[in-house]
Write a structure and sequence with these properties.
Helices cover 24% and strands 43% of the residues.
Length: 129
Amino acid sequence: MGKFVFIVVSIIILVLGGIFFYKYYFVFGQGVKAGELNYFVQKGYVFKTYEGKLIQAGYRGKVAGTIQSNEFQFSVSSERIAQQLMMASGKVVELHYKEYLGAIPWRGYSPFIVDSIISITSPNSQVVP
């Protein structure tokens, strides 16, 4: 009887561990977003995380006949990237991000985690390839 209980508990722990991994560590998607960096802050009571908001060009309403700006809220887990973004408030940035199915407190409040900066430019300057 003890061996049966051990096997059942082990299977339950493995299944729960797999579900946790899939929800919080499986990269669901990745991409690039560009826009003006509205704000970037470090916040949190126990886990200090970096959070930011990007305002994207264009306006689109969720309901027909309304206007709403496109905002991209994201988190950053890298100290090096966070320091670069701290100095870029108000500038136009292109960010590469990974999307997870859920957010965990020590990684940030958002399921979108920025892992690299593609470019940072002033709002009025043109990027020449």
